[in-house]
């Protein structure tokens, strides 16, 4: 996808990707551990007795509600692997490497709160085709 986006941008064009992108535990084990600890601490501070409902619980409730059956089926058919948290596609290093391979000269985080970050990439002068 990044290579396709690069093919329609002018040199110096920007791509912004806002997502939950975690540090790669293999490449940066201390940063990954610290990031998880910060997230856990913030979640505990906001909900000391545990969250009333997490993301998985919410989707379980939506899936169980017959009123949403058609929408849930359409979502499943459209993107059967839409969940990427915990997979390689949720790792910051994978996105940085893919952006660089697509011709983006500068890649970095311009905003971050835990693993929720805004990644910015600037297209270099020579685009890949």
Number of helices: 5
Order of helices and strands: HEHHHHEE
Strand order of the largest sheet: 1-3-2
Specify the CATH homologous superfamily of one domain. Answer: Vaccinia Virus protein VP39
Taking Cα atoms only, what radius of gyration do you get, to the nearest Å? 18 Å
Question: Share of helix among residues?
Answer: 40-55%
Low-confidence stretches: none
List the helices and strands and how they pair.
Blueprint: H1 2-6, E1 14-20, H2 29-46, H3 55-64, H4 69-78, H5 92-101, E2 104-113, E3 116-123
Antiparallel strand pairs: 1-3, 2-3
From the structure above, extract its key features.
single chain, 129 residues, alpha+beta, Rossmann fold, three-stranded antiparallel beta sheet, 5 helices, 3 strands, 41% helix, 19% strand, flat
Offer a quick outline of the entry.
The chain is an alpha+beta fold and 129 residues long. 41% of the residues lie in helices and 19% in strands. The chain starts with a helix and ends in a 6-residue tail after the last strand.
Account of the protein in words:
With 129 residues, the protein is of the alpha+beta class. It has a domain at 1-28 and 86-129: 3-Layer(aba) Sandwich (Rossmann fold), CATH 3.40.50.150. The chain is built from 5 helices and 3 strands. It has helices spanning 2-6, 29-46, 55-64, 69-78, 92-101, and strands at residues 14-20, 104-113, 116-123. Strands 1-3-2 form a 3-stranded antiparallel beta sheet, covered by helices on one side. Strand 2 (104-113) and strand 3 form a beta hairpin. The longest helix is centred in the N-terminal third of the chain and has 18 residues, at 29-46. The radius of gyration is 18 Å and the shape is flat. The mean pLDDT is 86.
């Amino acid at each position: 996808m990044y290579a396709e986006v690069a093919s329609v941008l002018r040199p110096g064009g920007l791509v912004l990707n806002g997502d939950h992108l975690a540090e790669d535990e293999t490449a940066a084990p201390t940063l990954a551990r610290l990031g998880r600890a910060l997230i856990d601490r913030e979640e505990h501070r906001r909900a000391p007795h545990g969250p009333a409902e997490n993301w998985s619980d919410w989707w379980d409730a939506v899936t169980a509600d017959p009123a949403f059956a058609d929408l849930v089926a359409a979502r499943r058919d459209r993107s059967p692997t839409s969940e990427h948290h915990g997979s390689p596609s949720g790792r910051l290093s994978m996105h940085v490497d893919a952006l660089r391979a697509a011709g983006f000269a500068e890649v970095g985080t311009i905003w971050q709160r835990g693993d929720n970050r805004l990644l910015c990439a600037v297209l270099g002068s020579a685009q890949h085709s």
